[in-house]
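Lay summary. Proteins are chains of building blocks that fold into shapes, and those shapes determine what they do. In this project we predict the shape from the chain. Here is one chain we studied, written as its sequence of building blocks.
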Amino acid sequence: QVQLVESGGGLVQPGGSLRLSCAASGFPFGSSIMSWSRQAPGKERERIATISSAGGNTVYADSVKGRFTISRENAKNTVYLQMNSLKPEDTAVYYCKARTGWGTDYWGQGTQVIVSS
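And here is the predicted shape, written in a compact code that computers can read:
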């Protein structure tokens, strides 16, 4: 059974930091491309960070470049999103996604991040 379980969301003040985690199971994590997306109320889901299977390549949306860092630990089947200098516009539900080597996508259930004073 495939599972992607996000954690680490919560309420943080502007300028603060959070670290999201996504624990994966049930598929070959080490050969999967992992990404983080987010969806704010009334907006479309936006992919914000992607990391290659071995972790050597990362891509970021302009909206988070320089503030967010995606990383992974294949030995722990976990992908992370370090979020620094958070802004109110970063408020959203954050989702992790796996794209396996055969092209199947799996999504987690999401974790809420609220940036507010």
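What the prediction tells us: The chain has a mean pLDDT of 97.
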